[in-house]
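Final report, Chapter 2: Outcomes

The project's central promise was a pipeline that accepts a single protein chain and returns its three-dimensional structure in a standardized token representation, suitable for archiving and comparison. That pipeline is now operational. To close this chapter, we reproduce one record exactly as it appears in the project archive, with the input sequence first and the structure output second.
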Amino acid sequence: MTYLLLAFEFFKTGLFAIGGGLVTLPYLMEMSQTHPEWFSMDELMNMVAISESTPGPIGINMASYVGYHVGGLGGALIATLSLVLPSFIIIMLIVRILDRYQKNRLINAGLEGLRPAVTGLIAAAGFTVLQASLVKSIGGIILLQWSALLLFVVLFTLTQLKALRKVHPILYIAAGAIAGVVFQL
């Protein structure tokens, strides 16, 4: 029964999370509330950090993580395949349509309109992660995590400096992990 529930939840997530892996976050947040035995909101933020730090698409990494956490290797396979299946089906349909109507100005205009919409969805998901990382609610009181905010500002500033733009992102991720361990963020 758990496998069927994992398959349903991740198929639904894969079907409606248009715009990339970060767009799966609202669905995973909802999952943490409807299935609290699977993972908590704090565990979700850890999953985001781990999924962003490992190779591969974040949505697939998170599906694998949740699936394994809930149902072992079988759960990981089911959650991952269920997340990917809607995209696979939809892209096969879209390719057939685009091949046939590639020169159609209405199709091209629709694709042009999708770009800002997807950008907005990704920005909203990024804001959700930022909020969950920098703000903590304790007993209904909302507290800003100053040490996390400071780390964010420092790393963001470093990534914007022209001299440091060629530094590999894994070094920034490692620096954030080390700071989290040292300062107990």
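Archive annotation: The longest strand covers residues 135-138.
This record, like all others produced under the grant, will remain available to the consortium after the project formally closes.
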